[in-house]
Every structure is written in C-alpha cells, then in structure tokens.
C-alpha cells in the first residue's frame, strides 16, 4: 500500500517513478484491462461528443441507461450509472448502512454487518467499513484452489439465523479469476431474503459461457455491479453500472453527487451498450492468450498457477517472495500485482494480467531469468511442499513442474527489426522513401531487405527466377544491393478492368478475380504474405516495409493486409508520410490519425513531410501543433527532388504524367 492509502494496481505514474522510467516505459500487468485495447468506435464517439462539453452532462444519464436497459432486458429504473463501479460500490455501502426504504436492516438502521469471502477485491471491505458496517470474512481454502464453497457460505449465514447482512463477492473473483454458478448463487439469495447479495461482475464478460445475474430474473435482494472499464479498456474515463431493485437504486442515487458521470463517459457508455460484438470478439481472443500464458507460467520453476477464467491469473511462488520479484521486474519495466495485501493471501502470491502475445512473452522471458537463480534444489524440497504447476481439478502429474527442475526458455526465433513507411494517400512517396531507407541502412553495413505485402502495378518485373513482382520492390532490392525476389512482394495485382485483376502470388499467377472474389481469397493471400515476410525476417537484420494507399481507407480496412495488419504482424514501427507539395498535408496526417483505432495509433512512431520546397523553419509552428494534437512528432522533412530517374509503376503516377518526364521536354510521336 502506498503512503496515501492507494492499494491497487494500475497506477502507472507511481510505478514509473519507482522504476525511474517514463510511464510509456512501463508494461503494466498489474491492471487487468482488455488486451485488445478500446473498441474502434471509441475515438470517433469521443470526438463527436466534444461539442457537448459546453453543456452540463445529463444528470439522469437517460440515453446511457435506456441503452443499458435494452441490453439487459430491464427497466432503466433498475439501473444507475456512476464514476466507475468503485464509486457505485461505496455509494451502495453507504445506502445500505443508512435506514431507508431499501428494505434491508431494521426500522431504525440499515445493514450493520458485511460478509466477504476472501481473498477478494480490497475495496469491498473498505467501502463497508467506511459506511460503518462490521466486516466479517469467510476464508477460502488454499487447498481447494480458493474456490468459493456455497455450502460453507450458507452455513455461515445460517449460523446467524435471520440476521441481515451484506454479502459481497466477485463473479469472477478478483484475484483468483474463479467464477461461481449464477443459478446456485441466485438460489442462495432467495433462501436469505433479508440479506443483500452484491455480485461484482466487473470481469464477467471475459468468462466463456458466463451467465450474468443482471437481467429480468435477478432476485430482488441481489445487486449487480457492471464495470465498463475492463472490457472496453477505458479505466481513465471512469464508468460503471449497478442493477438492483428500484428502491435500492433510489437509495444509491441519493448517495451519489450530481453530474458524477460526464458527457464523454455517457456517450461511450451508450455506444458500448449498443455494441453486440465486442465482448464476443474479446472472449475469442483472450481464451487462447490466457491458456498459453497459464501453461508458460506453470512451466517456470517454483511457480503454481490457479485456473482463472478471466483476463488475469493468480500465481504462487516458492521463492523469492512476491514483493521482491515485483521490484526486480519493475526495474525491467514490467509491473505485476503483488498480492500480499489481499486478505487470505500472503507474500507468496502475485497476479498478472493477460495481455497481447508479445507482451506476455516478454514477461515470461523476464520471469524465467529472475526465477532461475532462485530454484530450490531437489534435496531441499520437503515432502509436504506444494508442487508448482497448474492448480485445479483438471491438473495431473504431467501438468506439474517439481521443485528444482530446470526450466530453459526456448530461444526466440531469429526475427529482423522492422520499420514501415505508410502514407496518407497514394503517390505520397512511400516507395522512394522506402528505397532511400534501404540504401542508407545498406551503406551503413546493415543487412536489410524491402517488403510490400501486396502491390498493384501494370509495370511489373520478372526476376531471374521467372517470378513476377512489383517494380518498386525491385528498385528497393537494388538499393539494398540484393537481387529482387518475389518474397519481397509476395502478392501482385495486375488490373485488367475497373473491377478485376490478375492475381500473382509468390511470382506466379493464380487467376483473374473480381473484387468480391479477391476479398474472399485474401486470407490465403495474407497467409502467403506472412510466410514470405517470415522468410525475410529470418535472413536479414532489418526489413523496411512499404504500405499502400492509406491505412485509413474505411471501406477497405476490414480486409486490408498491406498496412496496419502487416505492421502489427511484423512488429514494425510506422512512419506516416505525407506529400506537402500537394498542400493539406497536416490535415491529411491529423485526419489519418483520427481514423485509426488506438492500437494502430500506437504503432505510429511519427511523421515524415515529403517533397518540401522552401525554408523548413517556417514549419515549426505546425510541427509543434501536430505534436500537441496527436502526441506524435514530425521526425523528418524531405526536400523535393525532381527527376529521380526511377521507374513508375502505378496508375496514380500515370495519371499525373510522371511517365512523360520533365514538363520542358518536347514530346515526339512516331508512327511506324
């Protein structure tokens, strides 16, 4: 716990100060946020709502609650919104502890006692104790994997007769990630009508097959907390919901400050409630990530992993203690959640979020290095010591790694560093900039190769191996001092009409396709492109990739394989280039960034202003503005150079008259 009493994960600023790094240098596994990041509609939703900031937000959150009611099939009168579910949790505790019409407690007082199965989210106890309730705990057994035993909970409630209390639990539990059956919990609530059961479903939407208690069949004495922070990756926005009996909702509202949910949060909440696909897409992505991370953690020496069902995993160490491991990882820029301050746990436990695959791999590699010197020799292990590995009813001897067994992380496959040039438009100079970067690196002795996943060109080239490929990649290969090969441009489209092209894959034609046919074929084309990239990345130190058109083509984005999808696959940092000679370059750069989802914005390292004429110092005010507006710097200004003498290959250049050479040249036409 920090000096100011804050005892949770996710405080990136404090973590950065502790590590001596910038916040951007922290890879945060201490807060469990959707590894996909925010949904793609977040930024446009926020942008559209900015104009409403001149007005106070709707104090009733009417549009948000109407959408939430429709989503859950309930009346909006059974819902209330807050500045995060933590805000609602504290308001709920105050409401229940005070006498009122909510129906819990005696005639002159509200609930005086809270019962919390532990380990559990820390603020359950904090909220109840601050509201004046006596807090009792029901310790979950480590031998049972910290699974909640509803019979034990029933027995504790029955021992108090009909005395009312507030029962708080997570679905799934935080930090264990284990859920409890909704039907059985509802039956327990119905058997104890004088008790209020608070089900915190903050991470429920990450659980496969999850059944929410929120809805028309929720028992009257059940209140459900619904967080939007985790699933929609907006912890900085602060937004949550509670569903409960109407009388209890009125009591909770009376404990909340007016205008506690701002206009931006309400707009995002409404959009989230209307999005029917994001949660399912997230579950499909998280399940294999969680499984891979669980298995990798369980293979580490002296680590036991609990079978969590959400987007985080609880681990137990033999040695070192979790606080020491946390400090050592933090020096590497990796933050995990030390669980020593959870009731029912101790300094052996830590929790990690499930993040994207490359992030998880970095953590696993660091843990392997940190834990290897701490291995317990076999002769020091006691007969009754817990065996590390996976913990749960499905674990077997083959799942376990005994104390002292050596762990050797497999060496990562050799993979080149990647840099990508994308543009705000076609003919922004991407091909030339890519060739220039290739030439610069080659002259410095770097083993570099070019790559473009898909090109469209009628002015193609045939290699010495009989492979057909785009001419721009031929120029780039020669800039690297290499013989051109089709793997540098694995997919080539040669237009044969306004709506169709000949498709060439790895230098060989596979057929003529109309647009719809090619879109259906694209998964195969992208697989070929990724395989070609992998072969280059294994043979060279650096690969300079080229994009096509713009990464912000909304109508093409869902199946685009040449811009951000390829950058993400390659792990490339992106230079976004704009043609300043055309005019409007800053609008083009800013507009492109505005249309990119957050994950793709993160890939952009900065901007390149291409084909500039004049005094670069005149650009300074605009460069400063772009940094303030988008958070990305202009990294370079490239002067305009006429008559480079390089071959043109696409229709944009043809239409611009690039094939005709300089304007002062005479054009002779000869008929034979």
Automatic annotation (TrEMBL):
<dbReference type="GO" id="GO:0008483">
    <property type="term" value="F:transaminase activity"/>
</dbReference>
<keyword id="KW-0808">Transferase</keyword>
<feature type="domain" description="CobQ/CobB/MinD/ParA nucleotide binding">
    <location>
        <begin position="419"/>
        <end position="644"/>
    </location>
</feature>
<dbReference type="InterPro" id="IPR004839">
    <property type="entry name" value="Aminotransferase_I/II_large"/>
</dbReference>
<dbReference type="InterPro" id="IPR047045">
    <property type="entry name" value="CobQ_N"/>
</dbReference>
<dbReference type="Pfam" id="PF00155">
    <property type="entry name" value="Aminotran_1_2"/>
</dbReference>
<keyword id="KW-0315">Glutamine amidotransferase</keyword>
<protein>
    <recommendedName>
        <fullName>Aminotransferase</fullName>
        <ecNumber>2.6.1.-</ecNumber>
    </recommendedName>
</protein>
<dbReference type="GO" id="GO:0030170">
    <property type="term" value="F:pyridoxal phosphate binding"/>
</dbReference>
<comment type="pathway">
    <text>Cofactor biosynthesis; adenosylcobalamin biosynthesis.</text>
</comment>
<dbReference type="Pfam" id="PF01656">
    <property type="entry name" value="CbiA"/>
</dbReference>
<keyword id="KW-0032">Aminotransferase</keyword>
<dbReference type="InterPro" id="IPR004459">
    <property type="entry name" value="CobQ_synth"/>
</dbReference>
<dbReference type="InterPro" id="IPR027417">
    <property type="entry name" value="P-loop_NTPase"/>
</dbReference>
<comment type="similarity">
    <text>Belongs to the class-I pyridoxal-phosphate-dependent aminotransferase family.</text>
</comment>
<keyword id="KW-0169">Cobalamin biosynthesis</keyword>
<dbReference type="InterPro" id="IPR015422">
    <property type="entry name" value="PyrdxlP-dep_Trfase_small"/>
</dbReference>
<dbReference type="InterPro" id="IPR015421">
    <property type="entry name" value="PyrdxlP-dep_Trfase_major"/>
</dbReference>
<dbReference type="InterPro" id="IPR015424">
    <property type="entry name" value="PyrdxlP-dep_Trfase"/>
</dbReference>
<dbReference type="InterPro" id="IPR002586">
    <property type="entry name" value="CobQ/CobB/MinD/ParA_Nub-bd_dom"/>
</dbReference>
<dbReference type="InterPro" id="IPR004838">
    <property type="entry name" value="NHTrfase_class1_PyrdxlP-BS"/>
</dbReference>
<feature type="domain" description="Aminotransferase class I/classII large">
    <location>
        <begin position="53"/>
        <end position="366"/>
    </location>
</feature>
<feature type="region of interest" description="Disordered">
    <location>
        <begin position="381"/>
        <end position="413"/>
    </location>
</feature>
<dbReference type="GO" id="GO:0009236">
    <property type="term" value="P:cobalamin biosynthetic process"/>
</dbReference>
């Amino acid at each position: 716990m920090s000096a100011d009493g804050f005892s949770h994960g996710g405080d990136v600023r404090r973590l950065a100060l502790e590590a001596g790094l910038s916040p951007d240098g922290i890879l945060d596994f201490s807060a469990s946020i959707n590894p996909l990041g925010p949904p793609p509609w977040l930024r446009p939703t926020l942008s559209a709502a900015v104009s409403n900031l001149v007005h106070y937000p709707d104090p009733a959150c009417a549009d948000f609650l109407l959408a939430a009611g429709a989503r859950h099939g309930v009346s909006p009168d059974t819902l209330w919104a807050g500045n995060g579910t933590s805000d609602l949790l504290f308001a709920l505790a105050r409401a229940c502890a005070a006498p009122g019409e909510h129906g819990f407690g005696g005639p002159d007082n509200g609930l005086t006692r809270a019962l919390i199965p532990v380990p559990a989210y820390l603020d359950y106890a904090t909220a109840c104790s601050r509201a004046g309730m006596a807090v009792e705990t029901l310790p979950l057994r480590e031998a049972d994997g910290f699974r909640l035993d509803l019979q034990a909970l029933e027995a504790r409630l029955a021992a108090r007769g009909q005395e009312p209390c507030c029962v708080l639990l997570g679905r799934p539990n935080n930090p264990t990630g284990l859920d409890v059956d909704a039907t059985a919990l509802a039956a327990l609530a119905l058997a104890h009508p004088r008790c209020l059961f608070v089900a915190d479903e903050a991470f429920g939407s990450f659980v496969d097959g999850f059944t929410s208690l929120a809805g028309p069949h929720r028992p009257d004495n059940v209140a459900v907390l619904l967080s939007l922070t985790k699933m929609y990756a907006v912890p900085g926005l602060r937004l949550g919901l509670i569903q409960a009996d109407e009388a209890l909702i009125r009591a909770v509202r009376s404990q909340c400050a007016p205008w506690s949910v701002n206009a931006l949060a309400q707009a995002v909440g409404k959009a989230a409630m209307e999005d029917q696909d994001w949660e399912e897409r997230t579950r499909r992505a998280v399940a294999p990530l969680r499984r891979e991370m669980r298995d990798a953690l369980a293979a580490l020496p002296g680590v036991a992993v609990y079978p969590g069902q959400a987007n985080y995993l609880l681990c137990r160490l033999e040695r070192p203690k979790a606080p020491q491991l946390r400090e050592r990882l933090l020096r590497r820029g990796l933050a995990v959640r030390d669980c020593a301050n959870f009731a029912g746990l101790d300094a052996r436990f830590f929790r990690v979020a499930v993040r994207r695959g490359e992030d998880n791999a970095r953590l696993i590699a660091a843990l392997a290095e940190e834990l290897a010197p701490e291995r317990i020799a076999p002769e020091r292990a006691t007969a009754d010591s817990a065996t590390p590995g996976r913990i749960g009813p499905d674990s077997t001897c083959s799942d376990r790694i005994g104390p002292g067994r050596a762990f050797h992380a497999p060496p990562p496959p050799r993979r080149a560093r990647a840099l990508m040039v994308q543009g705000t438009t076609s003919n922004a100079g991407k091909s030339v900039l890519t060739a220039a970067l290739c030439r610069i690196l080659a002259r410095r002795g770097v083993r570099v190769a070019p790559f473009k996943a898909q090109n469209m060109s009628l002015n193609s080239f045939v290699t010495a191996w009989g492979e057909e490929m785009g001419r721009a990649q031929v120029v780039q290969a020669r800039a690297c001092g290499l013989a051109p090969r089709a793997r540098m441009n694995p997919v080539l489209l040669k237009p044969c009409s306004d709506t169709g092209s000949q498709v060439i894959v790895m230098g060989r034609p596979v057929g003529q396709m109309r647009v719809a046919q090619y879109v259906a074929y694209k998964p195969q084309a992208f697989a070929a492109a990724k395989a070609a990239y992998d072969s280059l990345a294994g043979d060279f130190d650096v690969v300079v990739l080229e994009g096509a058109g713009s990464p912000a083509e909304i109508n093409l984005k869902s199946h685009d394989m040449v811009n951000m999808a390829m950058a993400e696959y390659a792990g490339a940092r992106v230079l976004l280039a704009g043609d300043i000679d055309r005019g409007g370059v800053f609008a083009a750069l800013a507009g492109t960034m505005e249309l990119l989802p957050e994950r793709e914005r993160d890939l952009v390292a900065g901007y390149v202003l291409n084909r500039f004429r004049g005094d670069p110092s005149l650009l300074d005010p605009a460069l400063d503005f772009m940094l303030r507006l988008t958070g990305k710097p202009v990294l370079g200004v490239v002067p305009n150079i006429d008559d480079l003498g390089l071959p043109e290959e696409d229709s944009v250049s043809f239409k611009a008259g690039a094939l005709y050479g300089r304007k002062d040249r005479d054009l002779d036409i000869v008929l034979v």
